[in-house]
Amino acid sequence: MHRSFIARHPSVLVFLALLALFTLAVTVLSEGFGVGVISTSFVKTLGKTLCLCLVAVAMDLIWGYAGILSLGHFAFFGLGGYMIGMWLMFERTRHIVEGALADAALPPTPEEIEAAIGNQVFGVVGSSDLPLIWSFADSLAIQLALVVLVPGLLALVFGWLAFRARVTGVYLSILTQAMTLGLALYLFQNASGLRGNNGLSGLQNLPGVTAPQSEVSLWFFWASALALALGYLLSAWLVSGKFGSVIRGIRDNEARVRFLGYSVEHYKLAIFTLTACIAGIAGALYYPQAGIINPAEIAPIASIYLAVWVAIGGRGRLYGAVIGTAFVSLLSSWFTGGQAPDLTVAGYRVAWVDWWLVLLGLSFVAVTLYAPRGIAGGLERLAGRRKDTAS
Amino acid sequence: MSTLLEVSGVTVSFDGFRAINNLSFQIGEAELRAVIGPNGAGKTTFMDIVTGKTRPDSGHVLYGERSASLIGMSEAKIAQAGIGRKFQKPTVFEDQTVQANLLMALRKPRGPLAVLLYRPSPADLARVAELADEIGLGDQLERPSGELSHGQKQWLEIGMLLAQDPRLLLVDEPAAGMTPAEREKTTAILVEAARTRAVVVVEHDMEFVRRLNCKVTVLHEGAVLAEGSLDHVTRNQDVIDVYLGR
Ligand SMILES: Nc1ncnc2c1ncn2[C@@H]1O[C@H](COP(=O)(O)OP(=O)(O)OP(=O)(O)O)[C@@H](O)[C@H]1O
Ligand SMILES: [Mg+2]
């Protein structure tokens, strides 16, 4: 990632500059540090969108470049969210509990504090003990490490089993769907130790921080923008050299790459695990902005949406993944948020909350059939045509 | 001349059909060999076995001076051991440039980490340029290989094989779909390559085989029917009956 790399890939620089400009504009227009044109909740929406763009870049790496249609990457995204959520919830509860017990005649013992936290956090699932997996929930450093390690390890084990058995194509997609479904079902159980279908909540409150949400939202927005910038840079660097050549080769003709002497399985495993780690980081930034995470977030459909965003944006192009995700997810929250005016077609009222999915599905089919290179492909054709007419 | 590859008593069945039937075959170091035979004789399957794509039901495949068994080794390991293969249908990476194709094939460490950190050295680029010249693509380095003509793709694939610098080269129907001039050039490339390594060429075109001017093995129904000079095998009555006479 040297100057020479940026010089050879000016589009990366353009992307980073646009992202910086966007971040600055949102900050200046925000309630927290700016003139207050953009509401705090919209800042959060934009910040979440940046996180979705980051996981979409990961999806583009694994699908658009390496040709592995994983329909399970939202599992890794969710796991990242859970890992940071544990710390947020634990520490905030500890602050509350300590505040409440401070007035008692005797200072509370660490055991009493722990018991009170357990009661607070797990009361909803009829328990009061902190499960074993919460052992490190008081350590931000460890939970941050787990944001990367837990998705990474799951991807490593899953990928090792699947790729070694040479599961490819649609079978692999189905297997990844099964993985995310299995994980979601497991987390739905109260005994999973992550509060079952209640999930983790109150994540927007940073423990020990008194700054208003209007400011906290911007911190997360900046962090999301930075993560997207770094993730984009890393991905662009990864696909620019021979590694990119090899994974695109695997996408186009796996057998040929093998006969060139490359262990295809190792490459698949490497890119699968790496993208899972990126997804974990994106999730860890997303859920504090959403405020809540529950197992429904990693339902199989979530990972399918991810593939749809990347397809619409144009796979095999990193900025395509970003454009597609930003465009579709923002449009989606507009349509499903009730802001879109309902249409009346031939006496029938089209409520967008219901019909948006139909529209999305049709656009996906249309893109697949008529514009397989998505929005990015269309933009490139436009740019190419302009160049043609100019010269 | 010492033996580089020894296939002995190999049998492969697909759903009960014996594609390779007790095949034995040897090739020496730096030998050029043509393999001919009717459609379905098992020529491609033979290459599949040597390169690890198909696992034989029985028999031995031994390679190198230490006579290591290739059976059970992964395709990648076999390729790393120095066996290169060109497919019947030209397979180059069409959305990548000629240079990227050749760089990918160039003999260098193949692990993900080594590849991630790899940056082509001036020597590597020079070698790629030299190879491109050899296969007549010297001025096409920056071109996406998908834009090349059919014959140029075949050459690029041969160039990729040479870039791998293998000890044994298996070439499946290299001249298919080529013009006479292209065929002649292909012959020259293969003969040149065989000066320093073993080359096995599968081909249907007798003129092409004649120009290779080497020992010929005739396969039929998964076994060797005849072996020797081209004139010798073409006079063989069995060969005339099953192959040439038709
Ligand atoms: N994977 C497979 N499954 C089933 N049958 C196969 C398989 N591979 C090859 N065969 C059969 O084995 C026989 C030998 O095929 P092979 O491709 O080796 O012939 P070939 O000598 O290369 O013929 P051609 O000159 O047409 O390329 C054929 O009858 C083919 O149908
Ligand atoms: Mg064949």
Automatic annotation (TrEMBL), chain A:
Protein name stated in the entry: Branched-chain amino acid ABC transporter, permease protein
Native organism: Oceanicola granulosus (strain ATCC BAA-861 / DSM 15982 / KCTC 12143 / HTCC2516)
Entries under NCBIfam families matching the protein: urea_trans_UrtC
Molecular functions per Gene Ontology: branched-chain amino acid transmembrane transporter activity
Regions that span the bilayer: 73-90, 140-163, 170-188, 219-239, 266-286, 292-311, 318-335, 355-376
Alphabetical list of InterPro entries matching this protein: ABC_transp_permease, ABC_transptr_urea_perm_UrtC, LivM-like
Keywords: Cell membrane, Membrane, Transmembrane, Transmembrane helix
GO cellular component labels: plasma membrane
Membrane topology per record: Multi-pass membrane protein
Pfam families: BPD_transp_2
Subcellular location: Cell membrane
UniProtKB/TrEMBL annotation, chain B:
Start and end residues of each ABC transporter domain: 5-246
GO MF, one annotated term: ATP hydrolysis activity
Tree of life domain: Bacteria
Pfam families (alphabetical): ABC_tran
Keywords: ATP-binding, Nucleotide-binding, Transport
InterPro entries: ABC_AA/LPS_Transport, ABC_transporter-like_ATP-bd, ABC_transptr_urea_ATP-bd_UrtD, P-loop_NTPase
Cellular component terms (Gene Ontology): plasma membrane
Transmembrane feature ranges: none
Statement: the UniProt record of this protein carries the keyword Nucleotide-binding: yes
Protein name: Branched-chain amino acid ABC transporter, ATP-binding protein, putative
